[in-house]
UniProtKB/TrEMBL annotation:
Record-given protein name: Ubiquitin-like protease family profile domain-containing protein
GO BP: proteolysis
Matches recorded under Pfam families: Peptidase_C48
Keywords: Hydrolase, Protease
UniProt source species: Sorghum bicolor
Keyword Protease (UniProt): yes
Residue ranges, compositional bias (Polar residues): 64-76, 94-111
């Protein structure tokens, strides 16, 4: 039986070649008629192409040599400039230390390790402000009772010196008595009256009233005024200093702010007398720095800078003594100046210092002005009088019952 009759087309092996189309014939014609075909080139064109090929190969070889020269460590020389002149032109354009053969030498860079920039003390942006706080409102308002108490306290300055001394000797002149401090009505009146300068005894009572005794380890700890006075005199080992820095009692390294109110005695040669000035030095453990808040001077003042440096040196020494194993290492803490409201007189520095102690939180600035000082004097006086730990019946004494 013949099976070939059932096959309509021949097998692929037996298929005859197709006739080339006109397009293929024209393409092949153009291909073979190309003037750059090897068989159609003249001798000059062949030499020119050969030269171009040699240039391409030479450039490729130079690139590979230059890349290998950068990756490999060359032999160090005493004169890096002379060594760089023997390198190819492409390598000379690089300015890295490897190009001049300095990769194997030890680094002599004095660039310090990266530290995050300190946060700038500023008022929080509008997007970060609490909707429950009116930042533009002035909360420094005095009640009628506080104004009445302030007027009675200021009237004590008009008493005679003899009657004051007699009442003071009998103990009747004491108007504020805390467990560790007390102050007489005369000293309180001389301190808070308009134009009066803050006595150091009144400042101690004010600092005591600002302390937070409800929290075991408060965020902010304010040390007594006399601590900074001891440190200025170079006294670093006595009972009060050791008690203030004792870890088992205060745990200063667990707080964010440790405040040192300072009373600096400045000697003026031209006036031939010593003048006292209050300011605040803060150990900010959260931001890892020391901060100075002064209402009259900046760190450009040599007296302020010298006093702060002496205090910081003493604080670091006491920190090593009482907190040797603490995670807070204050050795590298730097001192910065905080821009605070300034005073234009010479008697409000103590009240500026107290406002800084009360309102400074390490970020936001205390919002008060010099025109608010009369109100601040009244508010603070009433606050000290009505403190829960004042065991004197001051209302009956001043006839404000």
């Amino acid at each position: 039986m013949d099976i070939m009759r059932f096959i309509d087309f021949p097998t692929p092996r037996e298929r005859p070649p197709s006739k080339p189309s006109e397009c293929n014939s024209e393409r092949n014609a153009r291909k073979y008629d190309d003037e750059y075909f090897w068989d159609n080139l003249s001798e000059e064109q062949f030499k020119e192409l050969d030269a171009q090929i040699e240039d391409i190969e030479r450039n490729r070889t130079d690139k590979s040599l230059s890349s290998s020269a950068v990756k490999q460590t060359p032999v160090p020389t005493d004169n890096p400039i002379e060594h760089s002149e023997r390198k190819p032109t492409r390598v000379e354009k690089t300015t890295s230390a490897t190009t001049y053969g300095l990769q194997s030498a030890p680094s002599t860079s004095h660039t310090p390790a990266y530290q995050p920039p300190p946060r700038r003390p500023a008022r929080p942006g509008r997007a970060l402000q609490s909707p429950y706080i009116d930042y533009g409102r002035n909360d420094l308002k005095c009640s009628k009772v506080a104004s009445r108490a302030y007027d009675v306290v200021c009237s004590a300055t008009r008493r005679s010196t003899r009657s004051s001394s007699q009442s003071s000797s009998q103990g009747d002149d004491i108007i504020i008595s805390y467990p560790d401090y007390y102050v007489s009505l005369k000293h309180l009146s001389e301190s808070v009256k308009p134009g009066g300068k803050l006595f150091n005894t009144v400042a101690e009572i004010a600092i005591y009233a600002l302390k937070d005794r409800k929290t075991k380890i408060p965020v902010k700890q304010i040390l007594p005024l006399r601590i900074a006075s001891f440190l200025q005199d170079g006294i670093l080992d006595n009972g009060e200093i050791n008690s203030a820095f004792q870890r088992s009692l205060h745990h200063l390294d667990r707080s964010q702010l440790v405040m040192f109110p300072v009373l600096q005695n400045i000697r003026f040669k031209r006036l031939d007398r010593t003048v006292g000035h209050f300011f605040l030095l803060v150990l900010n453990l959260r931001e890892e720095r020391f901060e100075v808040l002064d209402s009259m001077r900046s760190l450009a003042d040599i007296n302020l800078k010298t006093c702060c440096n002496n205090l910081i040196t003493a604080i670091k020494e006491l920190w090593h003594k009482h907190y040797p194993n603490s995670r807070k290492n204050i050795d590298k803490y730097q001192l910065i100046d905080i821009n605070v409201p300034l005073q234009s007189n010479n008697h409000d520095c103590g009240f500026h210092m107290l406002m800084h102690c009360e309102h400074w939180n390490g970020i936001n600035m205390p919002q008060f002005k010099e025109k608010d000082m009369p109100t601040i004097r009244k508010m603070l006086t009433y606050k000290w009088l009505q403190h829960p730990e004042n065991n004197i019946a001051w209302r009956c004494k001043m006839n404000i019952c």
